Amino acid sequence: MTTLETRWLGLDVSSPVVASSSPLTGRMDTLRSLVDAGVGAVVLPSLFEEQIVHESRELHTMLVESAWNNPEAAGGYFPELDDYNTGPERYLSHLEAAVRELDVPVVASLNGVSLGGWLRHAVALESAGAAAIELNVYRVAAAVDDQPWELEDDLVGIVARVVDTIDIPVAVKLSPYWSATANLSARLVRAGAVGLSLFNRFYQPDIDVDTREIVPQLVLSTPQELLLPLRWVAVLYGRIDASLAITTGVHDAQGVAKCLLAGADVAMTASAVLRHGPGLVSSILDELQDWMVEHDYESVDQLRGSASQRAVADPDAFVRANYLQTLTSWSTPLPT
């Protein structure tokens, strides 16, 4: 009989499908639905230090600075600043409720700005019961004087400090925009990260041609986006001592199977369940189990990495050798 139980970040999980950070994991009702559908773990939406700082400053301006210009306000119109919640309390309450009510590991996600913020909030998340913390590294190196080695050193230093500060597992959610992904991955593991999530999706700004304003653009992932993290997990598997997760482009059972074959411990999904609802997870797991039976796999551990770079007959297929073949494989006649 096939089993879907496995381990991720050193945690026992009941299935290799994890609910990635999304609006669905920010609500208790949809969290329960995801767990009922069979996810092995959940990652809560990110706690953004930048947002906390911004809200605190806005509230300070409203309650303190505005009061000096309004005699009524200065006379007690507004409550004292200390009475307001300007910290991560709502997030921590949600985390505590999820830990209390769900029977799967609950992973917190943290996006810091300052070293103090990374450390302070990591400690708070651990105290609230998080089974692990995923460091959501979301930084665009847009300055022309940003040196790649300095950015990497900063990231490795932050991870090392967070790992030294808390006792629960730490994973790093990387973007694909590093100059030497394999080398940086190895450095992060040496700094203490027990897992890597590949890859973070940067949401690109758009331009309104009528107003000439910059507008946000949120586009859900497609199955085609699975190929990039699939390649890098296949390259890293067995070469670094880390738990690997794929977190982009996972939409169906076939995608989950590919993630596991490449060497991932889990496949993380968000866009697919946002489109189709938490019930999609049940269908994915049923189809995955059928596929495993058909291909004589008895467990996730048995199939993991069997199509990684180290396992395939042509390791160069993941790097360069198939480049020309790919370019020349297009067979549709050109228009006349």
Summarize the structure in words.
- The protein is of the alpha/beta class.
- 41% of the residues lie in helices and 15% in strands.
- It is built from 13 helices and twelve strands.
- It has helices at residues 28-37, 49-65, 71-77, 89-101, 115-127, 148-165, 181-190, 227-236, 253-262, 271-276, 280-294, 300-303, 323-327, and strands at residues 6-8, 11-13, 17-19, 41-48, 106-111, 132-136, 170-174, 195-198, 206-207, 214-215, 243-246, 266-269.
- The strands form three sheets. The protein has an eight-stranded parallel β-barrel with strand order 3-4-5-6-7-8-11-12, surrounded by eight helices.
- Helix 7 links the parallel strand 7 and strand 8 (195-198).
- Helix 9 (253-262) packs across helix 11.
- The protein is globular.
- The N and C termini lie far apart (56 Å).
- 38% of the residues are buried.
Topology:
Blueprint lengths: L5 E3 L2 E3 L3 E3 L8 H10 L3 E8 H17 L5 H7 L11 H13 L4 E6 L3 H13 L4 E5 L11 H18 L4 E5 L6 H10 L4 E4 L7 E2 L6 E2 L11 H10 L6 E4 L6 H10 L3 E4 L1 H6 L3 H15 L5 H4 L19 H5 L9
Parallel strand pairs: 3-4, 3-12, 4-5, 5-6, 6-7, 7-8, 8-11, 11-12
Antiparallel strand pairs: 1-2, 9-10
Helix pairs in contact: 5-6, 8-9, 9-11
